[in-house]
């Protein structure tokens, strides 16, 4: 393995797959049987299949593979503090030593049978070389998969940080102007707006690998909408549940997951309408999943934004920004929950809807995040 390819942190998780779980045994057995079939076909020649040779080869390969798997599993439990090079070297040596031990035992226990295939020394040497080659190729494959996974996680973390740190400059500028205009007229409302703005920035500075409750995320969205209402006034109406359901306190999600969706609803949906519109939020629970549905009215292509933002609604940059925010949010959910989370969007002539599904049950995510179990 190239030192240039090795991650700098020698204490990083093992690059080997988790072979200590029960569900990992079946693929290992199937792989050994497939290898036995290939060796039998090479031995028997085209058009023939020696079932006795296959049975003996399968027995020997299962003996070697399952023993190696058990020892590598035990090695992983204490070798995580070792560098990746040492982990791979130990796994490779274990595979070779187990193969040599098993082939030597086979040569001693079944000398006549081994003598029919090859001499005892040749049998041990050939099986050891084949084990070294196959184990080396497999370990290289696992290492490349590990690098790919690490690179993908780094890219996702970078996007999470970028999205989490991004508060639209024009939103900050407009918010500060609105707060400044409120100070002489309504100091209490101005103070509340400053607190709402500080809540947004406090969440934006939080680490991306932390999860917050759905209720806390909704309070952030509410703070954002309160600030936008200073700017849009009666043009922005919000249909919000008066009392959040119980599961909102237990469902977990990455911070600033819903806020960009709400921001899109305001920026791309309600703001372009001269008369404004209503942003609606619906929460539900079904089959140990929670569902969040956010909908907003949309303008026809002929309508334009009013006020200082006189831009065609069909502006391609706005559409691209909308899709980019949804794609980033979708990737954040995938990074946190894998396939268990789904983000979908749909539109009719008058309404745009984003639906989000998240798990409520306890699980470990690809980034090592722990989704807390529901309270009974």
UniProtKB/TrEMBL annotation:
SUPFAM superfamilies for this protein: ATPase domain of HSP90 chaperone/DNA topoisomerase II/histidine kinase
The entry's keywords: Kinase, Membrane, Transferase, Transmembrane, Transmembrane helix
InterPro entries: Bact_2-comp_sensor_kinase, HATPase_C_sf, Sig_transdc_His_kin_internal
Residue stretches spanning the membrane: 24-45, 51-72, 84-111, 123-143
Gene3D superfamilies given in the database record: Histidine kinase-like ATPase, C-terminal domain
One matching Pfam family: His_kinase
Stated name of the protein: Alginate biosynthesis two-component system sensor histidine kinase AlgZ
Annotated organism of origin: Allohahella marinimesophila
């Amino acid at each position: 393995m190239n030192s240039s390819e090795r991650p700098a942190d020698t204490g990083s998780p093992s690059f080997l797959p988790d072979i200590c779980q029960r569900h990992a045994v079946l693929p290992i057995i199937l792989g050994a049987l497939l290898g036995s079939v290939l060796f039998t076909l090479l031995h028997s020649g085209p058009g023939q299949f020696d079932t006795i040779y296959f049975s003996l080869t399968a027995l020997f390969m299962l003996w070697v593979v399952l023993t190696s798997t058990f020892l590598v599993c035990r090695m992983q439990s204490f070798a995580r503090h070792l560098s990746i090079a040492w982990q791979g070297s130990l796994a490779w040596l274990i595979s070779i030593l187990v193969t040599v031990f098993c082939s030597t035992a086979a040569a001693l226990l079944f000398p006549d049978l081994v003598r029919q295939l090859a001499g005892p020394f040749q049998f041990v040497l050939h099986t050891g070389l084949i084990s070294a080659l196959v184990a080396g190729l497999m370990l290289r494959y696992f290492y490349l998969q590990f690098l790919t996974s690490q690179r993908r996680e780094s890219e996702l973390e970078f996007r999470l940080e970028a999205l989490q740190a991004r508060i639209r400059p024009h939103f900050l500028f407009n918010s500060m102007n609105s707060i400044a205009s409120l100070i002489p007229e309504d100091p209490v409302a101005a103070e509340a707006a400053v607190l709402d703005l500080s809540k947004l920035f406090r969440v934006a500075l939080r680490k991306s690998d932390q999860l917050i409750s759905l209720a806390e995320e909704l309070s952030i969205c509410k703070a954002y909408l309160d600030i936008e209402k200073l700017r849009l006034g009666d043009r922005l109406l919000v249909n919000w549940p008066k009392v959040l359901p119980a599961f909102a306190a237990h469902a977990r999600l990455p911070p600033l997951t819903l806020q960009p969706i709400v921001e899109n609803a305001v920026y791309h949906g309600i703001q372009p309408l001269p008369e404004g519109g209503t942003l609606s939020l619906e929460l539900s629970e079904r089959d140990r999943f929670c569902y969040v549905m956010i909908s907003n009215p949309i303008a026809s292509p002929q309508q334009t934004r009013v006020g200082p933002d006189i831009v065609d609604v069909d502006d391609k940059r706005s559409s691209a920004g909308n899709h980019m925010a949804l794609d980033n949010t979708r990737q954040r959910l995938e990074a946190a929950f894998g396939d268990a989370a789904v983000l979908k969007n749909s539109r009719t002539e008058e309404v745009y809807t984003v639906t989000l599904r998240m798990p409520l049950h306890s699980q470990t995510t690809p980034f090592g995040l722990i989704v807390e179990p529901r309270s009974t």
